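Figure 3 (text version): structure tokens given as input.
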């Protein structure tokens, strides 16, 4: 998909990418550094998923389970996730429609954050990758539902799961939580739109 088509054929993908870029730019400006966007920025501190903050802030602390999906730790983190979002998100949104795409994305972000809180309460976490793992599962289901070759999307899932376990400083719970949401939602969301 050509970059200019993303805004027209995948508006939610474009909107999420735009929000992530704006959040990163504001946090980096506040921090005075492109690599201290969480702890060096008031916005980053307000958005990061960190169990003690969630528990200590009452009901408003629970906003972090979604806000953290729009905050990124540094420029490399942002670029990797936005590249994946544009490439995979655009295709998923084109196949399943904007409403189903948003449901999968937000469910992946939410489940990712809940998994982090359950499995790694004291680890500060940010980024869209949990939601992206949900989209990866949906991409596999789309291939099966539409009788396309599922090997490429399956290989992408396997490669990303392997990366999760072997790369340093990766949120294992976040990635697996997002993937779990995607697995649960993938088959019904990937059904043909006219059948719903």
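Below: residues designed for each position.
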């Amino acid at each position: 998909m050509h970059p200019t088509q993303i805004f027209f054929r995948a508006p939610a993908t474009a909107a999420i990418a735009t929000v992530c870029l704006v959040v990163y730019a504001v946090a980096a400006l506040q921090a005075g550094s492109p690599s201290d966007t969480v702890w060096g920025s008031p916005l980053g501190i307000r958005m990061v998923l960190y169990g003690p903050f969630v528990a200590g802030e009452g009901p408003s602390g629970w906003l972090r389970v979604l806000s953290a999906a729009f905050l990124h730790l540094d420029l490399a983190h942002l670029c990797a996730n936005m590249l994946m979002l544009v490439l995979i998100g655009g295709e998923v949104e084109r196949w399943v429609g904007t409403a189903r795409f948003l449901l999968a994305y937000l469910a992946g972000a939410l489940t990712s954050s809940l998994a982090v809180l359950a499995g790694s309460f004291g680890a500060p976490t940010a980024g869209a990758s949990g939601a992206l793992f949900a989209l990866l599962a949906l991409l596999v289901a789309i291939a099966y539902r539409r009788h396309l070759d599922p090997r490429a999307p399956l290989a992408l899932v396997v490669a990303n799961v392997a990366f999760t376990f072997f790369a340093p400083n990766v949120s294992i719970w976040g990635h697996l939580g997002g993937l779990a949401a995607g697995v649960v939602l993938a088959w019904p969301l990937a059904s043909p739109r006219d059948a719903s």
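Residues 87 and 110 are 21 Å apart (CA to CA).
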